[in-house]
User: Which sequence fits this backbone?
DNA sequence: AAAGGAACCAACCGCGACTAT
DNA sequence: TATAGTCGCGGTTGGTTCCTT
């Protein structure tokens, strides 16, 4: 049985919004609010539109303080940094850029910023496309079982299904938490825990706020795992023993994401080998030699 | 000047998550 | 606990504009 449609498709208008519709929607919401029910809103406002369409129009265009126009260098940098850290979580990235919408950022990334990172000027488009065609011979095959990083044994990486059985996350040898624990920490922590664990050569990054409470494990042991600030030292010590540098960044601040710059994001874009599967992807870049230790050898992101 | 292709961006679609009953 | 309704997100589409030949 299919899903029930959210509205009567035959009786709703589609396509671009007219100025009259915009005014109707804006005035209605400013006067009455959304009422917490977008589905009922168009009828109440006298609009022949789907509720979802109204929501989108309001959020992306009509609501106050929306910023249109050119993105600044700072905004570029933030987008790149966060993309390197969390992938295409546009709503989370948008939350860090006041006035920008997820749709805006997504479009900007797909049409401009990605090319900017690759250094493609309009006049270079064709030759760049040709060379890319030659370079990228095979499309990325979604593989959720990534090879272990160079610092761990190649034979002992673990893979572990999450509670939803949709994603396999490859973990590290001797990792103190199971991969599902990691997954749950990241995905159950709400908006503050946008920072998925990132293994960046010898650097392991963990997202989450200092006041993050705990998150449950799906391994059946129902152990609660806290990764608040008091655990940072424990992690650091553990990874130090393993010869790894562990780094936990905190909250929604940008200090950690800004660890990434254009050079860090380039591999994601140019190799085109990230798996955009529910935000999980892994990247390998065996060529990068800049920035000292961090970029020597294999660079992998675990999401 | 015209045609074709590329770029841009608003809007749509489908699905998972969440909530109310 | 199960189910239906709704929300919100990310990927994709399609119309318009811009650029190149």
Assistant:
């Amino acid at each position: 049985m299919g899903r029930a449609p959210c509205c009567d498709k035959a009786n709703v208008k589609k396509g671009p919004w007219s100025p009259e519709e915009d005014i109707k929607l804006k005035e209605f919401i400013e006067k009455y609010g959304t009422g917490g029910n977008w589905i009922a809103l168009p009828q109440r406002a006298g609009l022949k539109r789907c509720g979802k369409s109204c929501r989108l129009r309001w959020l992306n265009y009509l609501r106050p303080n929306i910023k249109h126009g050119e993105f600044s260098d700072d905004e570029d940098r933030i987008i790149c940094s966060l993309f390197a850290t969390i992938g295409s979580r546009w709503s989370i990235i948008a939350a860090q850029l006041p006035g920008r919408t997820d749709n805006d950022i997504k479009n900007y990334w797909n049409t401009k910023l990605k090319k900017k990172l690759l250094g493609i000027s309009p006049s270079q488009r064709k030759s760049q496309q040709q060379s890319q065609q030659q370079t990228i011979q095979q499309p990325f095959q979604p593989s959720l079982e990534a090879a272990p990083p160079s610092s761990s044994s190649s034979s002992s990486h673990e893979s572990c299904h999450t509670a939803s059985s949709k994603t396999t996350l490859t973990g590290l040898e001797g990792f103190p938490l199971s991969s599902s624990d990691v997954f749950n920490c990241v995905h159950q922590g709400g908006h503050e825990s946008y920072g998925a664990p990132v293994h960046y050569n010898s650097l392991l990054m963990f997202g989450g706020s200092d006041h993050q409470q705990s998150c449950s494990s799906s391994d059946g042991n129902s152990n609660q795992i806290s990764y608040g600030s008091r655990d940072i030292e424990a992690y650091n010590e553990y990874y130090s023993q393993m010869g790894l540098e562990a780094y936990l960044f905190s909250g929604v601040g940008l200090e950690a994401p800004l660890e990434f710059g254009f050079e860090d994001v380039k591999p994601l874009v140019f190799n085109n080998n990230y798996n955009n599967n529910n935000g999980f992807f892994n990247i390998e870049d065996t060529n990068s030699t800049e920035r000292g230790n961090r970029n020597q050898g294999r660079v992998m992101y675990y999401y």
Remarks:
- The beta strands of chain A are 159-161, 168-170, 198-200, 203-206, 214-216, 224-226, 245-248.
- Residues 3, 14-17, 50, 52-53, 56-57, 60-61, 103-104, 107-108, 110-112, 122, 125, 164, 278 of chain A lie near DNA strand B (CB under 10 Å from a C1').
- Confidence is low (pLDDT under 50) at residues 121-259, 271-303 of chain A.
